[in-house]
Design a protein that fits this description.
The protein is an all-alpha fold and about 400 residues long. Helices cover about 70% and strands about 0% of the residues. The protein has helices at about 1-25, 35-45, 50-55, 55-65, 75-85, 90-105, 115-140, 155-170, 175-195, 205-215, 215-220, 230-250, 260-270, 275-290, 295-325, 330, 335-350, 360-385, and strands spanning about 25-30, 255-260. A two-stranded antiparallel sheet has the order 1-2. α1 (about 1-25) packs across α6 and α4 (about 55-65) crosses α5 (about 75-85). The longest helix is centred in the first third of the chain and has 29 residues, at about 115-140. The chain starts with a helix and ends in a 20-residue tail after the last helix.
């Protein structure tokens, strides 16, 4: 699996370099373009899930324990956490976003029946994994509802409600903009609120926070360490990013609003990394200073985590229901909601039973990448190399999203 993953990463990086070299100055326009801030908000909130909120506080100590994991000794725990979530790996999303916006309309690889089937398996499986992550982390963040380890009925109810809300919001694409922008501001409020709350504990110092931000520089100084898998846990993260990349690319490609190709790449690498870095710096301060997160702080983190889950599921549900033609227009809203809530709830339980693994999904996506490349080289090489613009039917009309169901 490590060799397969490494091959996928190197292929992705070479593909990104080729795209920027050949089409770097071309304007990229999606079928439902939105303004740049909205596009970035959709990208950020759809491209991340509850793990961003809930994982770091449980991981810093492991990255700091270099006696048990000497492979982490090359930099500090905050830089490693950032490396697992920020900057470089967002290039995965750029590749798929550009492909689905500009190249797929010419190639139509994902319209091949077997490819379409695999694509939807990937999307549905990752939807369920997202809900599973929320379920599996709730005992740690809401110990007041149980013993801090076991799952109780209340946790299942929270996940079920999140799935149901996401399914409902997926019934109309206009909710995407509202949900994405709202999630972005809620996340910013959480960062500011948790930083400000450190003063209550007498541990809040601007200089300490800025020092933490400076620690992230250890990632950029050691970027080469993060390109290929550091260990099995890093492999898990990278497969997870591959699993997400193919569907986030499909979804976000709809909303690109006329940025040039290099600007899309920079937007994807830089803008999401800023709030990620700010968030991790706050969490690292809580970790290093031993500040407790029980009570209101934990509740706030869970709330924002649930909002992230809803946002991510919304985009993924819309993707696979459109692909499979199980839309509201065809089924009716009641049947649409019932079918998707039931399916995702059952699949979430399969992840809990360890019947499914996100690594398998990521490996399948890498296979799709290589399969698509082989198809282009054998069947569509000339069509792709002669591309000079986004599809001509895609026009910059920021009001279009208001009229799409």
């Amino acid at each position: 699996m490590t060799a397969w993953l490494s091959a996928g990463i190197l292929f992705t990086l070479l593909s990104v370099a080729y795209i920027v070299f050949k089409w770097g100055n071309m304007k990229v326009v999606g079928v439902t373009p939105v303004k740049t801030f909205t596009f970035i908000a959709i990208l950020f909130t759809s491209g991340l899930d509850v793990g961003l909120i809930m994982f770091p506080l449980t991981e810093f100590a492991g990255y700091a324990d270099i006696s048990a994991s000497p492979e982490y000794a090359f930099t500090n725990p905050l830089a490693i956490e950032f490396g697992f979530w920020g900057f470089f790996i967002w290039a995965f999303y750029f590749l798929t976003c550009f492909y689905f916006c500009v190249v797929e309309p010419k190639v139509k690889f994902f319209e091949i029946p077997v490819v379409k089937f695999i694509n939807n398996v990937v999307i549905i499986g990752t939807c369920a994994f997202t809900a599973f992550l929320l379920l599996s982390n709730l005992p740690w963040y809401l110990p007041m509802l149980g013993d801090g380890e076991s799952l109780v009925p209340e946790f299942y109810l929270i996940v079920f409600a999140s799935i149901a809300f996401a399914v409902y919001s997926s019934t109309n694409i206009k909710y995407v903009r509202i949900l994405s922008i709202t999630t972005t501001w809620v996340f910013i409020a959480l960062i500011v609120g948790m930083w400000a709350s450190t003063f209550i504990f007498g541990e809040g110092e601007l200089t300490q926070y800025m020092t933490n931000m400076g620690l992230i520089g250890g990632y950029f100084a050691n970027l080469h360490h993060f390109v290929l898998p550091i260990n099995e846990y890093h492999e898990f993260y990278l497969f997870w990013w591959f699993a997400w990349s193919i569907m986030i690319g499909q979804f976000t490609s709809r909303f690109v609003g006329g940025l040039r190709t290099y600007q899309v790449l920079l937007a994807m690498l830089v803008f999401p990394s800023i709030p990620i870095g700010a968030w991790f710096a706050v969490l690292y301060h809580y970790h290093s200073a031993g500040i407790p997160t029980d009570g209101l702080v934990n509740m706030a983190m869970v709330f924002v985590g649930v909002v992230f889950v809803i946002n991510s599921l919304d985009s993924l549900i819309r993707l696979y229901t459109d692909n499979l033609n199980i839309t509201v227009a065809r089924l009716g809203k009641t049947n649409y909601i019932a079918l998707n809530v039931l399916a995702l709830s059952l699949l979430t339980l399969l992840f809990k039973l360890n019947f499914l693994q996100i690594q398998w999904v990521g490996a399948l996506v890498i296979a799709l990448f290589f399969g698509c490349f082989a198809f282009i080289m054998s069947k569509r090489f000339k069509s792709v190399t002669t591309i000079t613009t986004s599809p001509k039917e895609n026009k910059i009309d920021f009001t279009k999203i208001e009229n799409v169901n």
